[in-house]
Amino acid sequence: MRPRQIAPVALIIGLTVAGFLGSRFLGERDARRESEHRAEVAAAQIHGRVDEGASLAESLRRFMVAGSGVTSEAFASNASRWLSPAGFPAAAWVEVVPGSRRAAYERRMGQPIVTRDPGGRIAPVGARRSYLPATLVSGVAPLATPGIDLGGVSGMATALRRASTLYDARATPLATLRDGTKGLFLTRFAPRLTGRGVEPGFAAVFVSDLWLRAAAADTTAALQLVVGGSAPGDHVGAAATVRRSFTAAGQRFDIVVPQESIHGAAAVMPWILLAGGLVLAALAAALGVNAARRASAQDEVDRIFTLSSDMITVADFDGHFTRVNPAAEQILGYTEKELLARPYLDLVHPDDRERTAAEAISIEHGKSTMSFENRFVRKDGSYKVLEWTTTPVVEDGLMYGVARDVTERRQAEAELKRLADQQAALRRVATLVVTGVPAAEVFSAVAEELERLFDAEATLIARLEPDGTMTIVASSGSASDEMPVGSGVQPESGMVLARVIRTGRSARVGDYSDASGFLGEVTERTGIRCSVAVPIMVEGCLWGSMGAGTERQQFPADTEQRMAEFTELVGTSISNIQAREDLAASRARIVAAADQERRRVVRDLHDGAQQRLVHTIITLKLANQALQPDHEPASELMSEALEHAQRANVELRELAHGILPAVLTRGGLRAAVEAMAARMPVPVEVAVTVDRLPAPAEATAYFVVAEALTNVAKHARATTATVRAHVENGTLQLQVGDDGVGGARAEGSGLVGLADRLAVLEGRLRVESPADGGTLVTADIPLPG
Questions:
Q1: If 0-12 CB within 10 Å is exposed, 13-18 middle and 19+ buried, where does residue 420 land?
Q2: What is the distance between the alpha carbons of residues 397 and 400, in angstroms, rounded to a whole number?
Q3: Of 19, 545, 597, 715, which is most buried, counting CB atoms within 10 Å of its CB?
Q4: Helix axes 695-711 and 662-679, enclosed angle (nearest 10)
């Protein structure tokens, strides 16, 4: 409905609501005044009951003071005579008994101080610092038992303390006792005169909650009474209330009564006014409905056209927009005037214009388009992918279209495809790495995958050489012509690979226009404008770099991160290949050393001991012949044969010593090291604290010491040497050091052979030999079990 149609209806409704609220307010005001009057009456009546209780407490005080040794029977008789007419249920005379005098009190009374347990039964009270026993009681609940302790009553101790200093009645807060009785006590200082003197005590009158509430006889049963607690608010739950308060006997008394509801004619009149006004408003509204409906349809269309987040257009068959909604400006960035002034094909991406023109011709012939995508150029030069739904009105020469911006969706789909392609490429490379193909094949596959994934014109992988140059191990695209596999490259300052080598981090060069020298020639021939490179790390060390170049302005921002995933695979492949090569070389060296040792043993046996033994045999034969009667005396021949046999025995012993000394097999590592140290040309300090070891570990340790001491004797020019061996955490730790000239190389054949032998036992060999700093050979040999 239009504002002019709504105004009469609004006026009628306003007057109706005002009449309804006014009559309702007057009714509620009268009801509240009536409730306030009732609350005041109830407060006055309850106040009177409290004053009666205070007067009764005063009477009991005078009775206790005037009498001489008031007994329980006298107290109960007088209390009952005074309490019953006034409606009070019970009273007592209470003493204050310290905890240290409890026993004396109970002996005097002839009964214990008691209390009610949670079940309401009478039971002796537990130990406390002080007690408030009712020595004299009226005999009616809740003060029916002499000696019952009132110390657990809320506020009793405070009321007695105030009553002893202020000679007025004092009240306790309203509370529920353990026997289920709810009420309060009015106390008054009342000493008792006895033959022994004055006994301090207090008169206590119990006032029932029901009796207090019954004082307000003409007030509704929903009256609430709060004594000594926090005052209730003006609302209890959802109902309105009226509250009145007064102070008596040192306590605040709050009386709360529910506010009376509106009833009778005062309750009906507001609704009569409201119903009549609504009927008039409905009649007025019906008059404007038809006019509002006529304008509603056009308003709805305009609202959708204006508020739609999709681009809505009207175009003629001549190729111009005739109307666009505000979303077109938000999506494309042009003003409405700019969009209407140009043919819409000028805004279409050049690659999509032919398709768009053909689709427009089909629409002019009456074909509706449900889904057609093309790219429009934004004012800032970027592109938006639009999905069109178009319907023609041929007789008017117009086409109505709705274009949804699906740029983000298409970008997300492209990103998902890119990630899928990257994961597929990583899987292909990982498969090559796992299958153990040669490194060159892995490098070539990575270079080709990078070229395809990043749409690069050139990719390469280079290995960093010890002299600082780089060797190309894989290349693709234009890089395969400029930097073929196997070629060397001297990193130049502007080269992206040089930045990676210098920093050990990813690098990017976005402009080669100022490049000179070799780099300038290569970029000019290949057309590379931007390049990105990432380091290849192997076991924490920079092994080389992997790079890609493009003729475009820039690579995407996350190119380095994506390339790094391939460098991890390349590094793993290099580590695996190096491990396999090192293992193969180690095994080859072990086999070669074993074969060489066999040949040496055969040669030594043949050239040495075997020849001696042959000579001995011949000599013995000659001696045998000489013993015949026709030959010369054989004494000299026998002596010569004996000498040859002794020499053969010595040489055989030396040969066996070269393979594995007998002292090692008989006495262990300590004895073998001491024997070697005794034959050294320089003093050797021996500190071997191990007993017998497993044979492989013992032999390996022996050969380490033998090789190290041999190097000391031949090359170190040392004056002293040390040999130390001990077992720690299941590992034999062996050290051989000297004070020689140092400079020993761990690549020597003897030490390399020892490293291989240690590797068989999963051990490790380290050589520290700084120039002029002596040499320290350390071996760690894990022991089985």
A1: exposed
A2: 10
A3: 545
A4: 20
Asked whether the beta carbons of 590 and 636 are under 8 A apart, the reply is no
The predicted pLDDT at position 184 comes to 92
Please report the pLDDT score of residue 628 as a whole number.
59
Q: What gap in Å lies between CA 747 and CA 740, rounded to an integer? A: 19
Separation of alpha carbons 494 and 515, rounded Å: 7
Asked if residue 422 lies in contact with residue 504, where contact means CB atoms within 8 angstroms, the answer is no
Burial class (CB in 10 A: 0-12, 13-18, 19+), 534: buried
For residue 325, give every residue at least 6 positions away whose Cβ sits within 8 Å of its Cβ, in sequence order, or none: 305, 306, 308, 311, 312, 313
All residue ranges of the chain with pLDDT < 70 are 1-2, 5, 165-167, 217-221, 229-239, 263, 266, 288, 291-292, 295, 297, 436, 577-615, 617, 620-621, 623-638, 641-662, 749, 785
Show the CA angle centred on residue 768, arms to residues 765 and 774, nearest 5°.
130
Q: CA 240 → CA 154, 226, 259, 668, distances in Å?
A: 30, 17, 6, 104
pLDDT of residue 687: 93
Asked if 225 and 255 count as a contact pair (C-beta separation under 8 A), the reply is yes
Q: Is the peptide bond before 696 cis (omega within 30 degrees of 0)?
A: no
pLDDT on residue 289? 72
DSSP string, 731-742: EEEEEEEE-S--
Q: Report pLDDT for 238.
A: 45
Contacts of 402 (CB under 8 A, 6+ apart): 308, 310, 311, 312, 313, 388, 389, 390
> Residue 221: its pLDDT value, please?
56
Crossing angle of helices 559-604 and 749-760, rounded to 10°: 100
Alpha-carbon gap, residue 269 to 277, rounded angstroms: 13
Instruction: Name beta bridge partners: 258.
Output: 241
Residue in the block written with tokens 């998902």: 416
Residue where the block lists tokens 């190096």: 578
Q: What is the pLDDT of residue 284?
A: 73
DSSP characters over 616-678: HHHHHHHHHHHTSTTS---HHHHHHHHHHHHHHHHHHHHHHHHHS-HHHHHHHHHHHHHHHHH
3-state secondary structure of 462: strand
